[in-house]
């Protein structure tokens, strides 16, 4: 087992700055490109991350610690951000950074001891899960979406790189 709460926080706390460094000030072409129908742009991913901060990670962790396995977590609507009020990517990045700071503060406050990470709850689709698994999934979720954003942006130039496409692995996934 590799999980360590401080290592998890090290990634979680860097995600907002990583995304701000990558996306802030870019032309809309970079922010709005996607990989086709049913996929998300960088701007939409940031919206999804905001929604997760508000309704997924800390709320579910709190629920798990309070309710245990007595009832399943509330369902998380992974697509709720698609119907949210339109804001600029800059506004979303700022909101995400503020929400993430509060989430990490809350995480540190509610996980007072490592034994709390072994407590279990009921996920509506997966069944019994541990608090540690939930926090681990949060970290990997961040990394997944960072990779998604980078891959989507790279694919914007897939036809423009000409024969170099064969050497650019990110374009061939």
TrEMBL record:
InterPro entries: DinB-like, DinB/YfiT-like. Gene3D superfamilies: dinb family like domain (1.20.120.450). Residues 12-149 form the DinB-like domain. It comes from Cohnella hashimotonis. Transmembrane segments: none annotated. This is DinB family protein. It holds the Pfam family DinB_2.
């Amino acid at each position: 087992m590799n999980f360590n709460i401080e290592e998890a926080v090290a990634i979680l706390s860097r995600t907002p700055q990583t995304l701000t460094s990558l996306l802030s000030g870019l032309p809309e072409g970079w922010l709005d490109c996607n990989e086709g129908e049913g996929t998300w742009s960088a701007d939409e991913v940031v919206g999804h991350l905001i929604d997760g901060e508000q309704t997924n990670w800390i709320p579910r962790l709190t629920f798990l610690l309070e309710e245990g396995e007595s009832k399943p977590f509330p369902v998380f609507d992974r697509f709720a951000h698609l119907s949210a009020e339109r804001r600029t990517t800059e506004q979303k990045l700022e909101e995400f950074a503020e929400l993430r700071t509060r989430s990490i503060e809350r995480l540190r406050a509610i996980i007072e001891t490592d034994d709390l990470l072994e407590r279990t709850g009921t996920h509506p689709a997966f069944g019994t899960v541990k608090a540690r698994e939930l926090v681990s999934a949060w970290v990997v979720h961040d990394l997944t979406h960072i990779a998604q954003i980078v891959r989507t942006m790279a694919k914007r130039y897939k036809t423009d790189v000409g024969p170099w496409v064969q050497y650019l692995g990110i374009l061939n996934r």
